[in-house]
Specification:
The complex is a heterodimer of chains A (about 180) and B (about 190). Helix content of chain A is about 35%, strand content about 20%. Chain A is α/β, with parallel strands linked by helices and about 180 residues long. In chain A, helix 2 packs parallel to helix 3. Chain A starts with a strand and ends with a helix. Chain B is mainly alpha-helical. Chain B folds into two domains: about 35 residues, no CATH class; about 130 residues, Up-down Bundle (Four Helix Bundle (Hemerythrin (Met), subunit A)). Chain B is built from seven helices and three strands; from the N terminus they run E-E-E-H-H-H-H-H-H-H. Chain B has a two-stranded antiparallel sheet with strand order 1-2. The longest helix of chain B has 23 residues.
Amino acid sequence: MYGIDFNKLRFLVCDDNAHMRRILRTLLHSFGAREVYEAEDGATALEMYSHYVPDIVITDWSMPIFDGIELAQMIRQPDSKGNPFAPIIMLTGHSEKRRVTVARDAGVTEFLAKPISAKGLYQRILNVVVSPRPFIKTKNYFGPDRRRNTNNAYIGPERRSGAQPEIVPQPSLLDKARAPG
Amino acid sequence: MAKEKSPTLKVQAFADHHVITQPNPLRRVVRLVDEKNFEDPVARAEKALAGLSDEFSDWMAIECDRLAAAHSSIVRNGLTVAARDELFRAAHDIKGDAATFGYPLAAVAAESLCRIIEHAPDFNRVPADLIVHHINAIQAIVREHAGIGTAGMAKELSRKLRGVADEYLTVVNRDRPEHLEAILAPSIVPVD
């Protein structure tokens, strides 16, 4: 079976609530992570993102100064000097459909509604590590492909023009790991 | 074809979008493990979380104090955007954290308070008692958490508060369908 070497992953956790940061740190350390950096607002998180270059960002939505959505938008700048591709997991008490859509459109990779659970967090991390999605760049969006599945029964207009959406899938890491060599 | 951002990126250009793939930088962290020796990381994390549970009652008390302080500040100094936002964040944190800390009914009452702050067209015109009752209820649920037979009372209290809040929000948002839709959606906070 396959596992994740959490000790090789660097996390940035951004939440204005110290208790939630403690919970997240506890969970990540017990998964095996050693490098967990913490920020209590979006501005500090952005600075730490540039400085520590984390592999995965876990952020709250509602925070002072600027929030998790703005943080995601600032990370997802295709022409920035930093890494615009890092997976962003949004962990939030907001879980209305409208909110999920806003987060998705800001470039958030995975959405996890509070209350947090060890299983839920592990599953989101597994998803971003093992099954990364290609990135899409349009006039007004840059981020992970928002289409997680191909719907063959879809009969509406094709909103991506110019061709059928010939998306190059990111091969599953599990498939890669199974391949010899 | 779009300009390559770096030699490691593959970019496919279409009329109105680009598809960008990159070698997964996290590939290095996936490994084969022997099933016999596999220690479930989720079980390990749940155990670690349980180890923190002795602190949860203190944490909830701190969250409740923060909520009360945010409300007192509004009563004392008047309503500002910053003060309203702090009240919302305090309630929202309880909504998100309380179930993890073992107080799911406090989360229900806090969610109801969040909905009032978020969906009332004018927070100044929200009946003061409606806010006070929510804050008192959250504090009471947390304070009396260990009391015998209080769970049923707390559940009924949360349910009634939510009912009164929803009734108020439905009336004041009768001309705001986008808010009505959100208000009438079922609660997503676990009750049990």
